[in-house]
Amino acid sequence: MLKPRPCVSDLRAYHSPVSDPSLDLRLDLNENTTGCSPRVLARLRSLDAKTIALYPPREPGEKLAAEFLGIRPEETLLTNGADEGIDLLCRAYLDHADEMIIVTPAFSMYETFCQSAGARTVRVPSGPEFSFPTEPMLQAITPRTRVIIITNPNNPTGVAAGRQDILRVIEAAPQAAVLLDEAYFDFHGQTLMDQTGKLPNLFIARTFSKAYGLAGMRIGILAGAREQISVIRRIPSPFNLNVFALACLEEALADRETVTAYVDQVCRGRESLQRELAALGVKSWPSQANFILADFGAQCDALLETLHRQGIALRKRPDIPGAIRITIGTPQEMERVTGAIRQFMQSPAVARQVAP
Ligand SMILES: Cc1ncc(COP(=O)(O)O)c(C=O)c1O
């Protein structure tokens, strides 16, 4: 057995739930369950053998993405999902003994990328009701802080941070790359993209995996000041996006109708799930994303098992005892999952335990 770098041998393996074929309703990974734009599918089907045989240039896609975001192509790096953008940022700025600050609970890949860069993660707990902990974040900044990640809205809570609070953190850490992860931007509508290039240490990550229904295609964007992006651009393969992703980007960006319809569906589904949970006496947090975090307390594991037996996958968050994250699906899917939750919560054994 070869000896890996110590920071790599200490990494925990990511166990993907995707591989369980018995589950026919997956509401555990915040995917778009309605699928991608039909225009994307048509472009995909139109590709010929010669196009697929060639290495795909990234630059035309970056021009399109930049135009769409209202920034310059030099401020735009297309990445293999937002994941790659986060990894590249960690590899560009984190060295041994450096620190990365995140707000917990957090998207799990941040720590993986930080650790594999050999650096240390500083975890700042969310405030009351998972609010953004502005003051503790400011206090956590030290000369060793080289990366700060703010997820807005946050995953797994769905709770959003305010613009002024984020700006205070960016301004307080000029020596650090501040990554604003806007993976769920489309469901919230608030962004700091207008500050790209104006704040030299601000980076913004976006993904096509959620609102655009392209998780399988792996397309993300890392936006930031030109000087910084030109450095980060040295790290990835020039062909980090495959030909399918690059060919479909134009159609994905152009089809606003499909994205808007999906976002509307999510907003309606989010509201009715929240109402449904409240009626069952289950606490949930106000989400600005395409999922809801709910507190099932002592019933958490039994509920997950019961739904699993019915082919429904939800996401347990072991770092928040009792909490389950539920992706918003189509109205039919939501009817099925809420029906299953209702049946479980109203079963005599559970109802006896949760009765006041
Ligand atoms: C907050 C956050 N950032 C980034 C990602 C990764 O997105 P992608 O599929 O583009 O790599 C996810 C995926 O769930 C996420 O929740």
Written description of the protein model:
The chain is an alpha/beta fold and 356 residues long. The protein has 2 domains: 18-33 and 257-354, Aspartate Aminotransferase, domain 1 (Alpha-Beta Complex); 38-254, Type I PLP-dependent aspartate aminotransferase-like (Major domain) (Aspartate Aminotransferase, domain 2), CATH 3.40.640. 40% of the residues lie in helices and 16% in strands. The strands form 3 sheets. Strands 2-8-7-6-5-3-4 form a 7-stranded mixed beta sheet, with helices on both faces. A hairpin with a 6-residue loop joins strand 12 and strand 13. The longest helix is centred in the last third of the chain and has 24 residues, at 256-279. It is globular and about 60 Å long. Pyridoxal-5'-phosphate binds next to helix 5.
